[in-house]
Design goal:
The chain is α+β, with helices and mostly antiparallel strands. Strands 3, 4, 5, 6, 7, 8, 9, 10, 11, 12 and 13 form an eleven-stranded mixed β-sheet that branches. A two-stranded antiparallel ribbon has the order 1-2. A hairpin with a 3-residue loop joins strand 3 and strand 4. The longest helix has 9 residues.
Amino acid sequence: MPPRSPLPQRDGLDAAWVRTPGTGPGGVPAWATMREFLLDRLPASAEVESRLDAGEFVDQGGAPLTGDEPFRPHSFVWFHRPLAPEVPVPFPVPVLDQTRNLVVVDKPHFLATTPRGMHVRETALVKLRLALNLPELAPAHRLDRLTAGVLVFTTRREVRGAYAGVFQSREVAKTYEALARFDPALVFPRRLVGRIEKRRGSLQAELVPGEPNAETWVEVLEVRGRHARYRLTPVTGRTHQLRLQMADAGLPIVGDPLYPVVVDADPADFSEPLRLVARRLAFTDPLDGVERDYVSARELGWPASPIASGPLPS
């Protein structure tokens, strides 16, 4: 982990950093100057020359680099990344609870939890840091960009570890709801279990042979025509677990652009959300012992299909 940044946040975003490697064989560095290193390591979009002239690259002490300094092995360089335009996500982020240590929100569909890739400013973290004036806000866990529902953030650096421990140790009760195809031939409730792996660079996770590492309990709550509303209780927390396991069971979640097949989606089209919501999240607060229990108010719009309510499976 890098040391604390010498640069303040800008527009709710932490400064980026790059660490220089050591010297090569014989103690000879691969670059003569810091300018050569930055030009080699950063993309053209970083505009290294002009930003060196403007003093926008700084060392760990906050001193601007000119670029003419001799290469410094094992050192950190800090800077703010230039940001590309983003499509605004036109949905509010309601706050369900706010304490000295936590902010709990009801995240909308299409909004990423944290900056990544093309989604930077249009993320729950950045929006909430700015709206609530909480620069140390950080997620205690994450939801997929397309998944809505209960999302917990910590407000201060010194409490992050305590809440991270709760989520990492699975001491949190989580239930989701989803709309998906209904198959009357399947018996519910049912257990979905298998081994999930996700390869770097692949959009989809995969079910592969081997020791199971993913388990989900599935119950039917309501049936309407060809679709049903399901309660999903994950026992584990693998990447895309609910979406992949439901699709593998022949019950793909309505509006899913990844499972069972990848569909190109227009980033400006918010008309077809993934019908998956983190409905309820409960845990014992590790700092004050309070039993915290939060429920999302997000509605899952039923797809257009013959509406004929049927009895729930026994």
